[in-house]
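Training component of the fellowship. As part of building independent skills, the fellow (R.M.) carried out the full modelling exercise for a liganded target. The chosen ligand was pyridoxal-5'-phosphate. The inputs are recorded below so that the supervisory panel can assess the work.
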Amino acid sequence: MKGTTLKRSSKPSGKSEAWRARDRKVLWHPFTQQQLWMDEDFPVIVSGKGATLVDADGNKYLDGVSSLWCNLHGHANREINAAMKKQLDRVAHATFLGLTNPPAIELGELLVKIAPPGLTRVFYSDNGSTAVEVALKMAFQYWQQNGRPERTKFITLDAAYHGDTLGAVSLGGIEVFHGVYKPLLFQTIRGPATYAYRCEKAKTLADCGKHCLEDIEAVLKTRAREIAGIVIEPLIQGAGGMITQPPGFVKSLRGLCDKYDVFLIADEVMTGFGRTGRMFACELEEVTPDFMAVSKGLTGGYLPLAATLTTERVYEGFLGEFKDRRTFYHGHTYTGNPLACAAALAAVGMLVRPGSIEKIRKKIHLFGNLLQEFYAIDQVGDIRTCGLIAGIELVKDPTTKEQYPFELRLGHRVTLEARQRGVIVRPLGDTLVLMPPPAITDPELTRLVEVVAESTRAALASLTS
Ligand code: PLP
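Fellow's submitted model of the complex:
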């Protein structure tokens, strides 16, 4: 079996190599072991068009993960570019503290229009983590100043991922990402994830979901008076391994939240804006959460922008005289940034056009069919999909579900093989992730799935050669 050095030379070339050398000297990349980065020939992306990214040497790559789950309408989209250029000639940024601006107002109106009914207030921030932080702080403060100050705890699920700021990490349930920070975090109450593939109590996803709901209700029965809210990634938990929930799961959670008067906080950072075949995942379950955090696709994947939507009930719980100190003391330098809001108006504007979401649903149908190819690979233990999202879990032994040793980095090997073949993907451990931009063409989608399947076979072969 080969060692764990994964250096992979693509066509050696001057331009990329010169950039890489400069990168290695000064930069530190996210979620990256820099010691290994020094030996890798990572692509240097200089341009993009549609679902394709181009490196400094002119090599083209299909963007198989929507540039970390955010790109919707393709790179260098004409409409978004034009909207941003127009706004750029007016003003790029003016503070939202004490001022407002037309793109932020128009975007707020549009978000309220397309959000699940009852979400009528929009609070901007910069990224998915902060959108969740805002929801946490609002929920907490609401109870503090509305007669239930003992409601201070949040229920969150195993394998949850809500971002990398400390509040979001407190909710997180991924040991390898979050474990080391435990001493810094606030306590949460953890419910189980609907990880049916490895569920000890149930054989089907539906039964697994039922058990999870029972466990959560058991907590609520005894501790509801301490609980401010339940935080979920609706329909599918992303970074925890693309763990899908059975139909009705989110709706049942809504029912529990109503029964025990606990807030439901839906983190739609990954699932929002058409990714699941609906504008929002909650829509599929006909659920209105008390808070909905959105980001990623909000600007079509162009600029950092996020929003936390909430209800009149919550909004009114913050109203009062200045001396009452009910203000929400939270904001960021770039809150309501006009340039980002202009990009978002264009991106969301394209999604609300008649036929847009239906077009995505057709793509989802094709995607589902294409993914069947993976079942022919022995080491594919489970395939989980939701809309244009797929997680393909590779296992050493499909009978026992034994995993490959962590240090073999099988998922990463697939990434490197795919890169050689002109496709960009990024796994979650040994779960391969495919999340193409909805703008991908049918032939490109076909190629993407074929290349990743071929790369998986090549990576598996590399373990034994
Ligand atoms: N919530 C979910 C469900 C996510 O998938 C992510 C990022 O992947 C986040 C929050 C954090 O978003 P950001 O990376 O923009 O802070």
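The panel noted the following from the submitted structure. The pocket of pyridoxal-5'-phosphate is lined by residues 127-129, 132, 161-163, 233, 238-239, 267, 269-270, 295 (CB under 6 Å). The chain is about 40% helix and 15% strand.
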